[in-house]
Amino acid sequence: MKYYNLKDHLEKINFREATIKGQGKEKGLFFPESIPQFHEEFIQNLHQYSNEEIAFKCMKGFVGDEIPSEILKEIVTETVSFEIPLVKINAQISILELFHGPTLAFKDIGARFMSRCLSYFLKDEQKKVTVLVATSGDTGGAVAHGFYKIPQINVVILYPKNRVSPVQEKQLTALGENISALEVNGSFDDCQNLVKQAFSDPTINSHLFLTSANSINVARWLPQQIYYLIALKQWIQHHNEKPVIGVPSGNFGNICAGLLAYFRGLPASHFVAACNANHVIPDYFKTQNYQPQKAVATLSNAMDVGDPSNFVRILELFGYQFETLKNKISAYSIADDQTMSTIREVYEKYGYILEPHSAVAFAATEKYLQENPEQKGFILGTAHPVKFPDAVEKSIHTQIEIPDSLNELMKKEKKTVEIHSDFEELRRFLLHKI
C-alpha cells in the first residue's frame, strides 16, 4: 500500500515511511492510495470473529507485507487487549465504551498500535526518533503510556496550560524517563502550530529525526477503524437496521476513521459529528465555507479545536462532493450548558454517567434522532467520567468512584517545562534538551 501527500500527490511513500515521517512536504497529511474493501461475508459474520481477528483483518490491507503477519497479529492483540463493550443507554442510543484501556481514553488504541509499529520499524536501525505531539487532552496520556520506555524513542508532548483536566495532566507529566511534557501558555491550536513549525524547520530536522503521534500520523489514525467494527459486531446481534453513529469531534480523526471504514463496507446509516462551542465544521455544513477560528475553551476540552487537521481527509474521501458529504454526515454544536444538562438528564433518567465529550455526542445524536425518529444508533464513549470529575459531579451531585490506579497516579510528581506559544522557545528545547 502506498500513501500520497494530500498537498502533493506526487509524493508517495509506504506504510513504514508514513509511520516514521508522520507528515509530508508542506505539512501535508498522507492518505491511502486505494481503499481495501471488507468482504461481505466478513461483515455479515463479525460476531464469529474475535476482536483480535477483526483488528488484524482491518489493518492488514494498510500495512501489507511491511510487518510480517505474525508480528502484526501480536501488535493488534496488544492494541485491543481490553474490554470494548457496547452498552444500551435507552431505546434509541447505545454507547461504545472505549475507556477501559490503560489511560481510560479511546486514544489508547491508536497510540498502542502506532508505538508498536514504530518500535518494530526502528529495531534494526541505529537512529533515535523523537515523537513530537500536541494534545488537547487524551492524546498526551495515551501516547506517553504507549511509548513509555520504548527503546530508541523520545517523546515530547505539548499541552495547553490550564486547559486539560488534572487526571489528563498527570497522565502525561508524571512518567518522566523518555517522556518530556511542555506546558504551553496558549491554546491547543497554538500547540499544534508549534508542532507543525518544528516539522518544517531545517535546523531541527538536521538535529533530530521527528515524527508525530497525533491522528495526522496514519499509524494513529487508521487503527481507529477497528473499534467501529467491534461495535458493529455487537450491534448486529440485537439490531437489523444500520446504526446512526455519533462521534465526539475535535480534530476529526476519530470520525474520519469511521467514515473510512464506511467506505470499505461498514454498514452505517448516518454519522453525527458532535462538536462543542468550537463550531467550524457545523458552520461549514451550513455555508460550505471553511473558516478556521481561534479555539474556545469548553468542558469537553479534548475537542477544543478551531482548525481540525483531519477534515481534509474527509473531503478527500468524499471526492470534495459537498452534497454527498452532507447526505452522510450531520454536524451539531453543543454548548457547555447543554453538555451539563445532558449529563444530569441521562443520569437521572437512565442511571448512566456520561463525561463531557460523550455528553456532547449524546446531545447531538439525540437531535439527529429527533429529526429521524425511525432510526437508532450508538455514540462513542471516548473517556472515563473519572477524568472529568468537576463537570460530572457538579451535574449529577454524586461523587465518582476513583480507581486505585488513578489514586496512585495523582500522588506522583508533575514533571513539566513551561514555555510560551513562541516557536523559538520550542526550538531551543528540542535542540538543547533532547
Give a summary of the structure in a few sentences:
With 434 residues, the chain is α/β, with parallel strands linked by helices. It is built from 20 helices and 14 strands.
SSE-based structural type: alpha/beta
**Biggest sheet: strands side by side, in what order?**
4-5-13-10-11-12
Helix content: 40-55%
**CATH domain topology:** Rossmann fold
CATH architecture annotation name: 3-Layer(aba) Sandwich
How many beta-strand runs? 14
Mean pLDDT: 95
Overall geometry: globular
- What would you report as the Rg, rounded to the nearest angstrom? 20 Å
Largest sheet: 6 strands, mixed
Please report the number of helical segments: 20
Kindly describe this structure.
By secondary structure, the chain is α/β, with parallel strands linked by helices. It has a single domain, classed as Rossmann fold (3-Layer(aba) Sandwich). The protein has 20 helices and 14 strands. The protein has helices at residues 15-21, 40-44, 51-63, 69-79, 107-122, 138-147, 166-173, 188-199, 202-207, 218-221, 225-235, 253-264, 280-287, 311-317, 322-328, 336-350, 356-371, 389-396, 404-410, 423-433; strands at residues 2-5, 8-14, 30-32, 86-88, 93-97, 129-134, 153-160, 179-185, 210-211, 244-248, 270-275, 329-333, 377-381, 417-420. A six-stranded mixed sheet has the order 4-5-13-10-11-12, with helices on both faces. The protein is globular. The two termini are 33 Å apart.
